[in-house]
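The pair is quoted verbatim as follows:
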Amino acid sequence: MFQRRQEIAPRLRQFEEEGDLVVCKEVDDDVKEIADICERIHASGLLPERAGIGLDSYGIATLLDVLAERGLEGDLTLAVGQGWKLQSAITTLPRKLKDRTMVHCGQPIMAWAAGNAKTELRGSNYLVTKQAAGASKIDPLMALFNAAMLMFLNPEASGRSVYETRGIRMI
């Protein structure tokens, strides 16, 4: 990616140095790391029993396989509609951030991605697309929209730690 996107490579390296971006060395490192994060959150009891892991349905077969190997499958995962189906997140998230019913951690990488995004009106739908962003990256913002769509379902953490159910109390 750094060779293809030389104009943004220094900024990406800065995010890597700050710990906000992980550069994968091997092909499946991203899938393993995502699955590790999902597994830790599930083990803590913070995921709801349904729709706790939202995924863009494009190109996720490998991730679904790895999640299934770890027992994170079925109702726990949900394909989040993309394109115009994210309009609810695109239009509602700014309001929720402003009234503080949703908050974010203020990472520079997210501010950068949000600054790269261009909202466009197609028909009666607002869209944010990679094409409109040009060479810039918006992936963290798109992941936020996916997460927002799950949060709009008003999930409740299962509250049951996997460690507690196995007789080990997590502190």
Observations:
- The beta strands are 53-56, 77-80, 119-122, 125-128.
